[in-house]
Task: structure prediction
Amino acid sequence: MAEIVAVCTSRDKGTRKEPVASVVLKEGQGVVGDAHADCATHRQVSLLAEESVQKMADAGLMVGPGDFAENITTRGISLISLAKGTRLAMGEGAVLEVSQIGKECHSPCAIFRQMGWCIMPREGVFARVVRGGLLSPGDSIRIEEQHDHA
Result:
């Protein structure tokens, strides 16, 4: 079963996020209280698989949830295999729609400078909030609507 491992927020953009007990997703805006909330972009919420974080840990970095500035760390779902437009139901009613897989890094982050590579450009997933709700670690994730890769 796919589940949320951690939910994380930060006050400033471009910084690591701190794991918190729960977050509130607001439709069309993102994570309430997060630096990226209220942004008028398709990248309202960021997700990264725990399995991706583990790759960096296996390479020798001391990293964990939020260290790649992701809002939601997942387990048991292949985020990078999802197509844009796929809808994910999380917790007790929140729905996210995948809007972007990977991202361009405009300047190397601290992880990249230390290791010479980073997972976020290839394995980070971004989504917009279709339906808001409360999310906490341990909440389930299920694919509500699957789209094919175009």
